[in-house]
Amino acid sequence: MLKFIHAGDVHLGNPFTGLSQHLRTDFQAAIQKATFTALDRLVETAIVEKVDLVLFPGDLFHGSDNSALIQERLLQAFRKLDQADIWVAVSFGNHDFQQSQLAHPTWPDHVMVFDAKVETKEIMVRSGDRVSLTGFSYSDRFQRQSALPDFPVKDSQLEDYHLGLYHGAIGQNGEAYAAFNLDEMVAKGYDYWALGHIHIRQVLHENPMVAYSGNLQGLNRNETGPKGFYLVSDEAGLGLQAEFRSVAPVVWENLAIADCPDLATLQEELSARDFNETTLLSIQLTGTVGQELRENDSWGLLLEKLQQSCPSSAKYWPIKVDLVKPTEADVKPVQLPADVALDEAIAATVNAENIGQLLSEQVPIEVRDYFYSKAGQEDLQSRLQRLIAERDPNEN
User: Fold this and answer.
1) Based on CB atoms within 10 Å of each CB, which residue in 29, 46, 72, 378 is the most buried?
2) pLDDT at 331 exceeding the cut of 80
């Protein structure tokens, strides 16, 4: 029997750039150590589950410029695994390809690092099973040649299990990121392919299993939902099967809220929801949106006010708020004289002369210049059309 962890794209030390400067102090601390915490949780699981191996198929590091702290935290993790008699297999991908050329601390005895040339390493696990692992590290950032032709076919007479580590994407040979052919990969006869590079958890083939575990910790607001690794074993007697384990301490989520009348109601809606981990929220307001919310959105203040009203004990933090523009079917017709078109009326109203009368001299010149420009006026026209479309039908 074999049991191992497949953890692609750890991106240890990722800086989580682009977040608001108003971020709460405790959220800042959670984010700064998020990738380290996720790795610590992986190590804890590996020891509790008594796995034989941990596979890191590329982008273990976020880049080549790693601090002493990053190196030390990883070394501590590897030492814990080594002391538990757990093997570690590491290959480098497009983000950390230079790591294979840099000096590292002396890794513990149970750590195997793959070179730029495809190679096979053989070990024996606690059960006495013979396990072969084949992998490679990127020699440059784009790795435009498939490495699959150099992967040997499994020899069932010499090995009980053969595992492949591959950082790349499906595509044509010659394309970036070691583009590979799935049929060619399956034909190697391996028992499991641990893929890296794609940050979305997905299974490309089930028997044998060819899978991306996704990344250990979501790195931006496009990487939503639980993140973690696969715990793989053949305990059920059905071949190697993968079970997802979530370990990300910070979760990015999209949340849609319909028919919200005001800021207080919006805050109540958020406070009533359960968040198991520190959660960074991108919020979409749909349907009928109250005037207070629409006005604050048009002034560019909605997100900041929502952050200011966020309870200090909340496990969520709003990072983005959008008012979803109604579809044509949702737009309420505006009753105008027969000879007046709404678009034309708005365009005639929003012009440089009228804007100049409304903008105070205290407004920074950069702001005034923007609204005098064609782009600024088109922005105002679009917002005015949306406000009219979303108006309360009982308003005059």
Assistant:
1) 46
2) no
SS3 of residue 203 by DSSP: strand
d(CA 110, CA 2): 16
Q: What are the tens digits of pLDDT across the range 5-62?
A: 999 999 998 877 667 667 888 888 889 899 999 999 999 999 999 999 999 999 998 8
Which residues touch 276 (CB under 8 Å, ≥6 apart)? 251, 315
CB 270 within 8 A of CB 316: yes
Gap between the Cα atoms of 43 and 86, Å rounded: 10
pTM for the model: 0.80
- Identify the H or E element spanning 48: helix 34-48
Q: In sequence order, which residues have a C-beta less than 8 Å from that of residue 233 and are 6 or more positions away?
A: 1, 2, 3, 4, 240, 241
Helix (H) or strand (E) holding 370: helix 365-372
Measured between alpha carbons, how far is 13 from 117 in angstroms, rounded to an integer? 27
Residue 93 contacts residue 100 (beta carbons within 8 Å)? no
Look at residue 383 and give its three-state secondary structure: helix
Which residue has tokens 């523009």?
Answer: 325
For residue 75, give Cα distances in angstroms to 36, 71, 108, 344: 12, 6, 8, 67
Residues linked to residue 303 through DSSP beta bridges, in sequence order: none
Element (H, E) at 265: helix 263-271
Is the previous residue joined to 208 through a cis bond, with omega within 30 degrees of 0? yes
User: What's the pLDDT tens digit per position in 104-158?
Assistant: 668 899 999 999 999 999 999 999 999 999 999 998 889 999 999 999 999 999 9
Spatial contact of 126 and 85, defined as CB atoms under 8 Å apart: yes
Q: Which residue carries 């990121």 as its tokens?
A: 177
Place of tokens 């583009």: 179
Distances (CA, A) of 340 to 335, 348, 387, 390: 10, 11, 19, 20
Instruction: Determine the Cα–Cα distance for residues 153 and 192; give it in Å rounded to an integer.
Output: 13
CA distances from 214 to 36, 224, 274, 316 (A): 17, 11, 24, 23
Are 305 and 263 a contacting pair, CB within 8 Å?
Answer: yes
Collapse the DSSP code of 349 into the 3-class scheme (helix H, G, I; strand E, B; otherwise coil) and give the result.
helix
Measured distance CA(308)–CA(305) in Å, rounded? 5
